[in-house]
Amino acid sequence: MSKFDRREFLKTTAGAAAATSIGVGGAFWSTNAWAQTWKPEKGAKLRVLRWKRFVQGDEDLWMANTKKFTEKTGIEVRVDNEGWEDVRPKAAVAANVGSGPDVIVGWFDDPHQYPDKLVDVSDVASYLGAKYGGWYPVCEKYGKRAGKWIALPLGIIGNAIVYRDSHVKAAGFDGIPKDTAGFLKLCQALKAKGTPCGFALGKAVGDGNNWAHWLLWSHGGKLVDDKGVVVVNSKETIAALEYAKQLYDTFVPGTLSWQDPHNNKAFLDGQISLTANGISVYYAAKNSTDEKLKAMVPDIQHARFPIGPVGKPTELMQITQMFLFKYSKAPAAAKAYMAFMMEADQYNPWMKASIGYTAQPLKAYAANSVWTDDPKATPYRDSAALMLDHAHSGPLGYASAACLADYIVLDMIAAAASGSKSPQDAAAEAQKRAERYYKV
Known about the structure:
It holds the Pfam family SBP_bac_8. Keywords: Signal, Transport. It is found in: Periplasm. InterPro entries: Bact_solute-bd_prot1 (IPR050490), SBP (IPR006059), TAT_signal (IPR006311), TAT_signal_bac_arc (IPR019546). By secondary structure, this protein is an alpha+beta fold. It folds into two domains: 6-156 and 318-380, Periplasmic binding protein-like II (D-Maltodextrin-Binding Protein, domain 2), CATH 3.40.190; 160-316 and 406-435, D-Maltodextrin-Binding Protein, domain 2. The chain contains 20 helices and eleven strands. It has helices at 6-20, 26-31, 56-73, 84-97, 122-131, 137-143, 165-170, 180-192, 207-218, 235-248, 260-268, 280-286, 291-296, 331-342, 344-353, 370-373, 383-386, 398-405, 408-418, 423-435; strands at 45-51, 76-82, 103-107, 144-145, 148-149, 152-157, 160-164, 274-277, 300-303, 318-324, 358-359. The strands form three sheets. It has a six-stranded mixed β-sheet with strand order 2-1-3-10-6-11, sandwiched between helices. Strands 8-7-9 form a three-stranded antiparallel β-sheet. α10 crosses α19 (408-418). It is globular, with a radius of gyration of 22 Å. The relative contact order is 0.19.
């Protein structure tokens, strides 16, 4: 966790308040020093494409902050909220045809698939980093390419083990075991009690990719080495896939088709007692008017993923980034919007409204009280400090982005776990698929 303490945090938030509280239209640009750098084009209008909320407070505050930007600057902003799986292909189409949204709030290292189509936002990143305690290293790796910032990491949608405490205790465990061997025993015990677990094995952008990479890495497997050579067909990967088969035997039926919403629904419906998710399951129960769901709230707990044979945390979490296309007719206005949305006056309330659904990419925001107001949010606080990037341990770029978008690791886990392929055949197929992108 950052050593940037609360006193320093209050100083920066006070500064942000002073910087964003004055002006409408032209007055805003003339009275805010930071805005001089990104003074908008005459008649500027913006279109933003972002993912649709799993937590209502996230979307509500995003739209409120956007409205606030328009009120202060006079710049009209249209926001399109799309399903998680739809953002990536729509961003790719925009890159290919050279038209579409000015700003896209997308996933992982998608910007690295078309870096030459993106505006350099190093000036915005440097401004925000200097003001808010610096970027976490993993966020800097995702945002930069060849020394330039091609995207602004907006946040980390933290992933953790979400479980029913009473069911875990009924299965004979005090909490989530710290190691993968103990975790398998817990899942087996939950199934025996009729309260199984379930992890997404369909084309789930976040939940599926996150837990599948954790499983692979926890046993020492990885897609590529540090030079970008594909090494997934290894004894370590086979060990991970053998473990996946045992774990899959404890799952509720249907997980092979699960996308990101499905495990939320299964948990809240009482079909499963344990899954991998953000804080959205807890948020939904806590804010529900359904008495059955509200009664579930005290029983929902969160824990970090178990550690595998490699002996250290190996977690992937979902990073979301803002990026700006060169075809935009208002790049200065777009930069101003991106900076505005990450200023303390906007970012702090956004985090609070979503009860920590999106963790901070800038270290200063670790002091936000959302992480301590409700102790159940605390496990998500250090997501950016804890996570590995999905290219582990190779470079981010076109190949890593393409392999993630093609679900190579997730498909391999699903095939071996379900028995549609042997672990050996699943690993060999993943090797061939990855080599199509990582060309030596």
